[in-house]
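ugh ok so i messed up the first submission bc i forgot one of the chains. this is the corrected input, ALL of the components this time, i swear. 562 residues overall. if the numbers dont match what u have on ur side tell me asap before i send this to the collaborators (the ones from the other lab, u know who)
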Amino acid sequence: MSGRPVLAIGLGTLVFAALALVPFMVDGYGMSLAIAIANYTILATAWALFSGPTRYISLATVAFFGVGAYTVAVLGEVLPWSAVMLVAALNGCALALLVGLSTLRLAGVYFVIFTFGLTELIRQLVTWYEVKVTSTIGRYVFLDIDQRAIYWQLLGLAALLFLSGYLIGRSRLGFALRVIGGDETVARHVGIDTTRAKLLLFVLSALFMTLTGAIMAPRWTYIDPAIAFNPQVSFQTVIMALLGGVQRLWGPLLGVIPLTLLFDWLNARFPNHYLLILGIVFMLIVYLLPQGVAGALTRLRGLRGKKEQPAPVSMNEARQ
Amino acid sequence: MTALLEVSGLTKRFGGLVAVREAAFSVNRGEIMGLLGPNGSGKTTTMNLISGNLKPDTGAVKLEGRDIAGHRPHTIARGGIARTFQLVRVIGDMSARENVVAGFAFRQNPLWGFAAKAEAESLLARVGLGGRGGVLAAELTYVDQKRLELARALALSPRLLLLDEWLAGLNASELEGGIELVRSLADDGVTILMVEHVMAAVRRLCGRCVVMNAGAVIAAGETAAVMADPAVISAYLGDDDD
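and heres the new structure output, hopefully the right one now
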């Protein structure tokens, strides 16, 4: 959060401009990896935007992602692309408001379980609707949007996310969230409307997840509830964010890149044991790097100079 | 003198237990008032009801004539009531300065950025933490954390300051400094309601006291008179025929 804004934003712009050239330099496989990394970068960073400071572990990532994807599946051929995105954004915000208002009073494991249950509920509801009302289980997404367009859209969304995260981190809202994460009772007694602050960030975080789902939808050509609302996406997002570290905006990125590559390799080499290995990786991260790579880097630096230790945020942390 | 805070008919039940029963008292503008009573008499619950940490079942809490009973704590804090906690609460992974900025940033007339940082430093100096703004709150000693908590409360520029055993656990010389600090706040026009067990401090600071026992107010008035009240003595020491 320190540093000069002009420098940080300028540097960020340069990085994103360079990344925009990636499609001209890689083949199809490289492109699909780049999309996977961009996809999870947004999901994990958006997740950490809310869960980092508040320490509320949400497993609802794929609920928003899936809503975005389904909006495209239903409306993709009916409305122009920008209108589809707008509807997806509104759907995601509405769902996040609903979920936020009903769950943000819960803390610790109750919140975790509720968000997980919610995702399953939405998946079952969509399945039920598709079977009973539309009499199909899957939908086809035939849109003239190629890999490169998907990548550029994701990149643009990521740029917007990093800019928002950077500005929020320097704002009173970001500070309020850190106070809430530190001690919610104190937060209330210094005049922070904790429900409002949490809700705002939760909705913003969900908005980015929803748009990611919408952008990614054309990549599948066929989607059904099991694909769009696959809980594995939520888990992987949490693992990546925690591995990278959620105390800093760029933290999740440090988890996304190695794990996307690792998961891709595992999926290709050990398709049958993939989930088992995923679980082991998850446990190792929580035990070995409770503060993520970013936290470990900060601590390493702290051994040399004056130290600054962010509080640990880990999956097994249950508050109250 | 006029009343800044008027509490009447305040009642809070936890299941079958009545923690505060029909409590009524008022705090005058500019005074330091003590809230006394044996352990479990309902003092902290009363503080929590005033600050909005708990909602009363019935009763009124009027700040300058406006009923704030049952309002949410952040609106009460913005309305001019700040507090410290019986078990000290600071944000350990933030610097002392940031802890105080938290008090500035969300009040009625918020301060943010450089202004807030500068003001935070001067408040830290005032409570005896001058030049230590960069230290992590978790690394401060217990006593210094109490000072920090007070600075955070003062940052809200409260009209009423609730101190919940703020002097507890201080050694003799720290206590002396603490008493002087609280007195200087009152000299600056902050009205203070303090829960305190350190009787020497209560005698020196509080012009008036309210005494609670088993959730009810059993005495109120001038400190010396209240402390001589037989009902108060028996509440603390038990009755002769016990």
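quick check: Strands of chain B lie at 3-14, 17-28, 32-36, 58-63, 66-67, 81-83, 160-164, 191-195, 208-213, 216-222. that seems consistent at least. Residues 172-187 of chain B form the longest helix (16 residues).
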